[in-house]
Amino acid sequence: MQTLQNLLEHPWMHTAMGVLALLALAWLAGQLVRRLLLRVVRGITRRTAWRWDDALFRRHTFLWLARMVPALVIQFGIVLVPNVPAGVEAAVTRLMTALLVLFVAMAVSAALSALEDLYRETPRGQQRSIKGMLQLIKIGLFIVAALVVVASITGRQVGLLLSGVGAMSAVLMLVFKDTILGFVAGVQLSSNDMLRVGDWIEMPQLNADGDVIDIALHTVKVRNWDKTITSIPSWRLISDSYKNWRGMQETGGRRIKRALHIDAASVHFLGEPALRRLSSLRLLAEYLPSKEQEVAQWNQAQGHAAEVPANRRRLTNLGTFRAYVQAYLDDHPQIHHGLSCMVRQLASGPQGIPLELYCFTATVNWAEYEGIQADIFDHLFALLPEFGLALYQQPSGQDVRALLAAPEPPAGRRLAGTVGG
């Protein structure tokens, strides 16, 4: 019993009990703050109409501040523990100071993330991202916090540490090369309004074709149409070219630029029976009479030269069909009539005579655009025989098999056909 009493009266036992009591008090204070104060803060944020307090709580800003309480208890309570050496007391104080700096830096970082969340909910935030700028601020914040922590632990001044960092500037430039390039690229992209979250961009050299879902300091994330994610370094969007489809979406019309390849052998002049038949088409009711009158006046002005068919102007099935397609597009309810709309004939070639449709749909929705485009060309493909036209198509294997399977004519008929030709 005497031994136990002597042990309890020993100075180092008082120190150990004081340390245990201080640690217990710090733990208890931390639990009280986390369980009671945070619940109170949570209740207040739910009852208020403000959004910023909800964002701060969601990003654990108050939690990082609450973690400072145990460090503060230890830092100010270590002086009350008996028989603590001055060196140990100074070391504990410096260590707690470093933890406080770390917790403050984490709280500020969480607050910046909450600021980003609030900005993203605004109309402007849905177009322009500040994530890259905030990431750069966070990097600077943690660099300063790291310098302060090292200075607190080692007991050296921050100025001496900064002088050492200045000597390593070349190494730091190499380490933070991507960060510097990303920051410069982010400033240019934002100031020139070159890229926004939600833009559809196309960058074939990096296999990117889809919507921009995130603009960060180092990378820009693109969700491709096959649902894969492509990460593009920010500086590549400045040094390389890419296509941004935002202009199409803002205009409200998506371009159709596709050609019908007409078989040149099917092009001919229209006779009277064909003209009477085509006059019954509603979209040609105004075109054909005015065109026939124009042609008749021109031929009449030629005098006797018009008696030769080659000297006369005559309507062709291809020109009439081109007029029909133009009228069809002008009358189509799903074509954007405020943008360019024309039907033009391109230079003929091995694929026939291209008759190109150049117009814009009245919607930018992908599925609706494809449906409108398909409906237009389905109608025109089916209507070509009405004008005596044929679509150019290279012979297929079925055509070759049908030709080979056809019976040969008798020798006499084949000879007569050869002589007659």
Properties at a glance:
421 residues; three-stranded antiparallel sheet; 18 helices; 57% helix; rod-shaped; disordered C terminus
Blueprint of the fold:
Layout: H1 2-8, H2 11-47, H3 52-58, H4 61-66, H5 68-77, H6 86-120, H7 131-154, H8 158-167, H9 169-175, H10 177-191, E1 200-203, E2 208-215, E3 219-224, E4 229-233, H11 236-239, E5 243-244, H12 246-251, E6 254-262, H13 272-278, H14 287-301, H15 317-331, E7 342-345, E8 353-361, H16 366-383, H17 397-405, H18 411-420
Antiparallel strand pairs: 1-2, 1-5, 2-3, 3-4, 6-8, 7-8
Q: Which strand order does the major sheet show?
A: 4-3-2-1-5
H/E series: HHHHHHHHHHEEEEHEHEHHHEEHHH
* Assembly state (oligomeric): single chain
**What is the number of strand segments?**
8
| Average pLDDT score | 82
User: Structural class, from helix and strand content?
Assistant: alpha+beta
Show unreliable segments: 414-421
Helical proportion, percent range = 55-70%
Query: What fraction strand?
Result: 5-15%
Number of helical runs? 18
Distance from N terminus to C terminus (CA atoms, Å) equals 137 Å
Radius of gyration: 41 Å
Largest sheet: 5 strands, antiparallel
Shape annotation: rod-shaped
Please tell me about this protein's structure.
This protein is an alpha+beta fold. The chain has 18 helices and 8 strands. It is rod-shaped. Residues 414-421 have low confidence and may be disordered.
